[in-house]
Structure formats: structure tokens, C-alpha cells
Design brief:
globular
């Protein structure tokens, strides 16, 4: 059954969605993703930029429209999708940014989730290039399943880790405030 569930999830992530909600920074953002026959509508999407350069498009998909971090964290499932738009993003820069994100998300207290962070960081060892897509499925019962370009990379368990990961983009010290607001549909 687990294999069937994984195949359904992977297939749903690989298939192009029929309707494009909008185009952001050259990325066609789907109006929904389908996971295990559950349709998750686009909650919001925005751009992570630095020094006036667009780095990636971040999108949030949840079961119903949510406009605050607590509601997203309490949702049974949330999907964050990152579409890389800049060749300036390298594996090393992505790892550094995510480590910084975990530090901000946990008020510099990563000790309890360090093994999960280490496992997650291994996902960014391979080259990253413009056009790559990372999909992070944060499920309260399964943990976080990460996909790169539609291919499942790993599932990392742990509720504290799942919450910290979501807070990288949606927490009190997000990767970028304007991206957080856009993902929350504000």
C-alpha cells in the first residue's frame, strides 16, 4: 500500500496541472497540486529575491485558504514548492540559506532536530540549476517528503522538524517577508 501511495503522490506531482493560476517571474504556477486524490489549491505565490535579482518562486498549497502561519502549521498537509529561476542559486548557497532558515525558525536552537536537518541538507548536494523544482510535502502524520523535479528524494519524520521547515518561509523571521505575505495570500 505504501508503494501505491508513493506512486500516486509521485505521479500527481509529475503530471502537469490542467490550469495555470498565474505566471510569476517566468514560472507558470499551477492552480493546484493533487496528492493521494486530494486536491490542494494554491494559497499564494511570490518571489524570493536578493539584490534586485529573482532567485526562486515560492508557492504554498493547502487544503483550504489560510492566511496565517499558525493555521498552516496546524493544517494536516501543506506543500511548499520552490521553482529556481536564477543560475546564481548553487547547492552551496541553497544549503547555507536553508541552514540560516532553520536557525531563524528555531531561534538558534536546532539541537533537537539536527539529525533531521542533516538528512534534509543532503538533498541539496547535487547541482542546482535554473529550472529545477523542489516540492516539500509537509504532512502531520508522515513528516516531510522532498521531491526534486518530481522525483522523490526522501521522507524526513518529526513534528518539530516539519514545523521548523514551514517556518523557514512562514515564520517570524522568514526567508523574505514579502514572500511570506504572498504565500499567505496577502
Amino acid at each position: 500500500m505504501k508503494l501505491l501511495s508513493t506512486l500516486t503522490l509521485t505521479t500527481a506531482l509529475l503530471l502537469p496541472n490542467a490550469v495555470i493560476a498565474k505566471e510569476v517571474s517566468g514560472v507558470k504556477v499551477a492552480d493546484s497540486v493533487t496528492l493521494d486524490s486530494q486536491i490542494l489549491p494554491l494559497n499564494g505565490t511570490g518571489v524570493r529575491s536578493k539584490f534586485f535579482m529573482d532567485l526562486y518562486v515560492g508557492s504554498l498549497y493547502v487544503p483550504t485558504a489560510l492566511n496565517n502561519t499558525a493555521a498552516v502549521i496546524n493544517a494536516p498537509i501543506a506543500v511548499i514548492r520552490l521553482n529556481i529561476t536564477s543560475s546564481m542559486i548553487t547547492s552551496e548557497k541553497m544549503r547555507d540559506a536553508i541552514i540560516e532558515g532553520f536557525e531563524h525558525a528555531t531561534a538558534d536552537n536546532t539541537v533537537d532536530i539536527q539529525p533531521q536537518i542533516d538528512a534534509f541538507m543532503a538533498l541539496f548536494n547535487e547541482q542546482i540549476k535554473a529550472g529545477d523544482q523542489f516540492t516539500l510535502v509537509a504532512n502531520k502524520t508522515r513528516g516531510v517528503t522532498a521531491y526534486k523535479n518530481g522525483q522523490e528524494q526522501a521522507t524526513i519524520e518529526g513534528e518539530m522538524f516539519r514545523q521548523a521547515l514551514l517556518k523557514i518561509w512562514l515564520g517570524d523571521k522568514p526567508a523574505q517577508s514579502s514572500l511570506k505575505e504572498a504565500m499567505l495570500g496577502k
